[in-house]
Amino acid sequence: MEKLQIKKTPYDFVLEFICAIGLTAVLYPLFSYTELAEVRWPVHFNVSGEINSWGTRSNMWFIPIMTVVMYVGISILGNKADKLKFPVPVTENNKYSLYRLGFRGMKFVKFGVMCIFAYMNIMSFLIATEKESTIDFNVILILSGMLLIITLIMYLMAFLYKEK
Description:
Layout: H1 10-32, E1 41-45, E2 51-55, H2 62-78, H3 95-128, H4 137-158
Antiparallel strand pairs: 1-2
Helix pairs in contact: 1-2, 1-3, 2-3, 3-4
């Protein structure tokens, strides 16, 4: 069976570019601020967004490393849409539509993950440098909710391609 090539649209490139900006936003504080050498880093927040626990500068690497792993993993998985599981049977008639939906869906998931991690890392950086004192979990809840809604929409859209 030959590998099906999903045609990338300008929309896909824009979404990928935005994800790359999110990845850059996560990595930027690590390499741009030398004053972080003696800073304590927030490692846990309570539900009000106040810091429960502080760590050392080495803790600032956790979110960026996890973000890079997620970015690479989701990128690889998104390019292998034929390996994804779909809620409807994949047939010759609907496979291109389903694989394109899976390909684009993974881009949206990557976008959501990059937004969440970029926000968390930027806020941790601002708290570590004492420019902020708390993190607003409403932003994380909104971003997570949007990610959940997008995933649900993609799941429901798969049923549009079900063979009758």
